[in-house]
């Protein structure tokens, strides 16, 4: 019997149903990091500063259902477009699937382990800082980039 390909390989990202869309999230928490954007170049820089709703242990939003009311500048990434991709890390499953790329081996939909994202060092667990007590003008001193293996590199 022929095995059916996983949904993320056969369904365009804009056609995913709600359950499929939500299941793609790997729980890394990187989308919940505060970002800075260079007004001259448009380049987006990630900081280590986590949104106040991010549980930095689980790397999940602590009030996902009400996040837009709680944090007015929270970005809804669905529907995914080029502008929203700038606010997502390169390792993001939404970015990868929309580009026709395979999910990484550590992604829970491939390996079956929701903690693999943490074990692989992809999540913000252990290196993000809560936004409480960090002045916005200090975000530039807490920048993080991601290397070719999606590991954090601190400046």
Molecular structure report:
The protein has 155 residues and is α+β, with helices and mostly antiparallel strands. The chain has one domain. Helices cover 21% and strands 16% of the residues. The protein has seven helices and seven strands, in the order ααββββαααααβββ. The strands form two sheets. Strands 1, 2, 5, 6 and 7 form a five-stranded mixed β-sheet that branches. The longest helix has 7 residues.
N-to-C terminal Cα separation, in Å?
A: 52 Å
H and E order: HHEEEEHHHHHEEE
Structural classification: alpha+beta
How many alpha or pi helices? Answer: 7
* Mean pLDDT rating: 95
Short description:
The chain has one domain (7-154).
What's the SSE blueprint?
Layout: H1 7-10, H2 18-24, E1 33-37, E2 44-50, E3 54-55, E4 60-61, H3 67-70, H4 82-85, H5 93-98, H6 108-111, H7 116-119, E5 129-130, E6 143-146, E7 152-154
Parallel strand pairs: 2-5
Antiparallel strand pairs: 1-2, 2-6, 3-4, 6-7
């Amino acid at each position: 019997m022929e095995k059916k390909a996983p949904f993320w390989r056969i369904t365009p990202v804009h056609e995913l149903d709600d359950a499929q869309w939500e299941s793609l999230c790997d729980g890394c928490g990187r989308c919940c990091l505060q970002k800075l954007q260079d007004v001259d170049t448009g380049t987006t820089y990630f900081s280590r500063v986590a949104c106040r709703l991010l549980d930095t242990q689980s790397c999940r939003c602590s009030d996902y259902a009400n996040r837009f009311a709680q944090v007015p500048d929270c970005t809804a990434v669905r529907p995914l477009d080029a502008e929203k991709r700038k606010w997502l890390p390169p390792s993001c499953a939404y970015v990868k699937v929309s580009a026709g790329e395979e999910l990484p081996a550590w992604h829970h939909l491939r390996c079956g382990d929701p903690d693999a994202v943490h074990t692989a060092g992809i999540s913000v667990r252990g290196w993000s800082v809560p936004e409480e007590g960090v002045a916005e003008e200090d975000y530039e001193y807490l920048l993080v980039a991601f290397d070719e293996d999606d590991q954090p590199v601190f400046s």
